[in-house]
Amino acid sequence: MVGWGEAVRLDLGGADRFAEAEQWWRDLVANTEVADDIGLPGTGLVAFVSMAFADQPGASVLVVPKVVVGKRDGVVWRTELYRAGDEPEGSIVEPVRRVRVTRYSEGHLPVTGYRKAVTEAVRRMRAGELEKVVLAHDLIAETDTALDQRFLLRNLAARYPNCWTFAVDGLVGATPELLLRKTGATVQSRVLAGTAWPGSGGADSAGSSLDSAKNLSEHGFAVLSLADTLRPFCTTLDVPTQPRVLQLPNVTHLASDVTGRLDPAEATGPGALLRLIHAVHPTAAVGGTPTPDAVAVIAELEAMDRGRYSGPVGWIDADGDGELGIALRCAQVEGSRVRLFAGCGIVVDSDPDAEVREAAAKMLPIRDALETP
Ligand SMILES: C=C(O[C@H]1C=CC=C(C(=O)O)[C@@H]1O)C(=O)O
């Protein structure tokens, strides 16, 4: 689904951002006249959503584009939204502009600081303070001219066809992780945690290292956090007993596809998906276990604002359906300044040097997309 122009936009922050977003969306749906002859998920009124990871400052955004073009199972549609008195939005398409990276520099948390943060997290886990925490760091790329986000999008979509490629208000990426998709009463999630990359486990990156006790425990925490928070909304919830392997061009992950049937009371209304997202975010794929302790440790040891990296990103429609991934393998674009992020799940037996290498492997999608000739 591609949208352009901003018919309506909501900027919000803080711990109440999910509840406020839900209320705003319900009101907007109630006050908008819609003619939708197709009636598929994603047709009619749609908002693009990108929520911050943390409660503070929590800067998040919902954008209702002026024009949306979508495609599902061979059906193509175009939705246009006007406010009273608006001119129709033009559709002049300019060619994608290529950029060149002129330099990379340290972000708010340089690699040396990241290594120290991981070492400290492991020390705390050995002392029994928490079981898992996902720590991230950032990197700055500068480009010769203002970045055309479509350049990144196009390169990411070409190289990562199995991922969800997204761009919402300057946050651009291709994530392999589905936080929640809601279609009527069906809810689905793809939980990822546990990573191997070329060289991490010997010749075969999908071999021994992915099967390690460390990766399996990292994965187990992530699945449990999603299942425990989603189950109260469901009449049934299918959680695989064993993860499968998800192969991507840069890394290999342990993956669990979870499917649930929503309680009828939870399946209806425009705010349904936002309510579910509020309940499950942050899973231990980006937060940790126990969640409140992990979120506090992230704020203390990273000591940076993650912004919308590792927050929910995607779209919602007027029926409360939609698809929200976790914003991973992404960058925040501001003109010619691009801030890249990557994080790793840390457990008691994590090796700080290996986590630094894993984070570097996770930054490759954006780096490759930026550096595509
Ligand atoms: C936090 C990230 O990845 C998460 C998702 C998959 C595997 C992960 C891991 O093995 O550490 C992370 O939990 C990231 O890409 O920045």
Automatic annotation (TrEMBL):
Catalytic activity: chorismate = isochorismate
Species this chain originates from: Actinoalloteichus hymeniacidonis
UniProt keyword Zinc present: no
Chorismate-utilising enzyme C-terminal domain mapped to chain residues: 113-362
Key words, A-Z: Isomerase
GO MF term (any one): isochorismate synthase activity
Domain of life: Bacteria
EC number annotated for this UniProt entry: 5.4.4.2
Family annotation (PANTHER family): ISOCHORISMATE SYNTHASE ENTC
Protein name: isochorismate synthase
Gene3D superfamilies noted in UniProt: Anthranilate synthase
InterPro entries: ADC_synthase, Chorismate_C, IsoChor_synthase
Protein family membership: Belongs to the isochorismate synthase family.
Keyword Isomerase assigned: yes
